[in-house]
Amino acid sequence: MRKTILGLALAGTAAAVLLTGCSMSMEDASCGGGEYGVIAVGSTGSACVPDDEDPPKGW
Distance between CA atoms of 33 and 50, rounded to whole angstroms? Predict the structure, then answer.
């Protein structure tokens, strides 16, 4: 019985990984190479800023 439960748990985990692909990453790639994402303060807006620049005021 214990082996059956362990096998089902492993199969379920494997299926979840295969079905979700890369969507399990902690952050979504929304900016291109050489950029990082910023979020507006007090708003829901977002933007991409070059790696070598500070974000604009309010971001």
Answer: 9
